[in-house]
Structures are given as structure tokens and as C-alpha cells.
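Single Protein Entry

Contents — chain, fold
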Amino acid sequence: MDAAVSGRLSVGVVAVVLVVAAGAPGGCAAAGPVLVTPLDGEASFGEVVARAPAGARDAVLVVGGRWAGRVHLAGDGEARFTVQGRVGPQTVTVRFVAGARALGAMTARRVWLLPRSGAVARAATIRDEALSARLAVLGRAFPGWAGVYVQDLASGSYASWNADASFLAASTVKLGVMIEALRRYGPFPERSAVWGDVSAMVSLSSNDAANRVFLRLGDGSESRAAALLLARFQAIGASATTFPGTYRLTQATALDAPAPPPLLTWRRSTPRDLGRIVRAVHAAALGNADALRRTGLTVHEARLGLALLLAARPEGGPLVGAVRAGLPVAQKTGWTDKARHVVAIVFAPGGPKLLAVMTYRPGIDAAAAARLARGVTAALGVGGNG
């Protein structure tokens, strides 16, 4: 980042400016093109905005190496496009021309394109009693402890069963470490030395990487890092969620605890809390002022976080095969030999659907957890056969 730019950027769009040498009257260099949105590594809902260099008359959009549109520049020299019908990781390029003469181009790489219908994140306002009753049937059929929270982010309706029960959180609460790392190493965390660990912690659910990032957040102190995360969870409204220390990298053996109570765990969360955390990241990525305040993120940082969740591997979690093919899923899983959890946003054509499923039982039946998740996605209309 240029030395002239300091402090945190708290508003929606971050612009990266490149100056391209171009002929100008008097031999001066004209300002080069500026890609306003999207930027490298972001999640995007299809809006592309770029500012033209001097002399440009038209802008051409190329997505994934294919022509995607052309616009004539208005008086303000700003080109605006909306990408339709493409989802997944793409390279987005805007080229500026004057007739047959090329005047410059800007490219954003590793952009996670999402449907325009996903650009909404309404707060939970109306309880769907019928859907809650259906979730109760699914939850009670699980051979162990289960909790479910779902929300239609387009309408604000929600449903739940046992959603405020406290579960061993496993890796789901790495979401808090991700948020604090995006804040700490912003405004461009993707350029920081810790980005590889942040990415591995979310996309690969690496405990080693999570521990390194966690300790760096506390400047080497677990207690300072834990206090930061606790404050962030509470700001988001996830007051039942804790992250008190690093992950154990090996499992202890021969412990005198043959039948531990399921709720006496030190790293805890609830289905409702996990839903609040993921919705806050999504809403912040849309520029929602309340979500930006609660998470402490900028829009760029939130869009990076959302993109990491979109790239996260589903292995080990109960959602594998439970979502209809072709629908983007931003998710964080958590699993041990006692738990199978997932919190996710499924970007369906009718709008984004949020779900959090938490299950617990010593010697857990992973297949049973998967059946529960399939039942939940079917109830939401985003199931594998939906």
C-alpha cells in the first residue's frame, strides 16, 4: 500500500490506482484506469465498476477470458457492468479503448462471482412456525444431541429447533479468528504475511494455521487473543460463543473420562450464534452499516472473508452432497469424533438461505449427521434433489 495512505478504510469500496504512461498534451502522463470493484480475491455479486483513463470512449468487460459486454462511457468516465449468469471463481478484466486504440486495462483475479439474488441479508424478523416444527422432527430423529437454525436472508423469516443449546464448537469458531485477522491486517489483509495462514485456517480448516494466527492476534498471549475474540463475538451478538485458547494438535489418551457430559466444553457455540456470525460477514460484504460496525470490517475485508468461505472444503462436515449441484455455498465446518457441524449460506436463485446444523454424540454417527443436514436443505428447498 502507498505510504501516503494510512489508517483503516471504513467505507464500502476500496480503489486500487495504477498509473499507466499514456500520451497526453504537453507530454504529461494521463491517469490510468482504476478498477473500483471487484478487487483480487473478493466475493462479488456481479457489479463491476471501473474509471476510465483520459481519452477512452468505450469499455469492454471480459470474464473468464470471454467477452461479457461493452459500454459507451458517460461524461463522468465511469464504466459500470453487471455480470449475469456466471458463478464461481473467475478473472474479471475491464479494457478501455478509443476506437481501435487500446488505452489500458485493469484485472481482478480469483473473484468469486455470486448471483445478484444473493445481494440481500435481512435480519431475522419472522419465525416460521411450520418450518420450525419440521426441523423439530428432524432434530429429534438424530441419535444424539442436535440443534438447527435456518434463515431466509431475502425475507427475514427464520426457523429453529434447539438453536440456543451450547455445543462443543470444534472448528466453526475459527470464524472469529478470521474476522479479527481481516481487521488486524487490513485494509488489504490479502497482502499481509499472515494471509497464507488465514486462508489455510478457513479453506482447509488447519488447526496449526489457526493457532499461529490466534497467537499473533494476541501478540503471543492466549488470554489477550481470547479477550479480543470474546469482544468481537459479543459485538456481533454471538454472546454464547467462546474461543479461550489454541487448538490441541494431538489427542490425549488414557483420560479418566469415559462418559463426559456433552455441554461441559471450553470452546462452545450455538446454532443461532453461528448463524449470526456468518450473516454478519455476508451483510458487511454488502455494505450494511450495522454489520460493518459489529464486525469491525471494511467491505473489502468482508468480501475477502466471504470468498474464503466460498472456497472452503466441505470434507468432514455434514453438508457434503446435501446441496443441489451448481449452487454456491459459503460454509465453515467443524468436526471431531464427537461432533459434526456446519454453518453455511446457500446462494439459491430465490435468494440466500442460511443454515447452521450442530450435532454431538461420543463416537458420533457421521451418516446420521449427514441425513439431518440433507433433511434441513430439503426443507429449505436447496437440497441435492430439490
User: Anything to note?
Assistant: Residues 12 and 287 are 6 Å apart (CA to CA). Confidence is low (pLDDT under 50) at residues 1-30, 251-261. The longest helix spans residues 222-236.
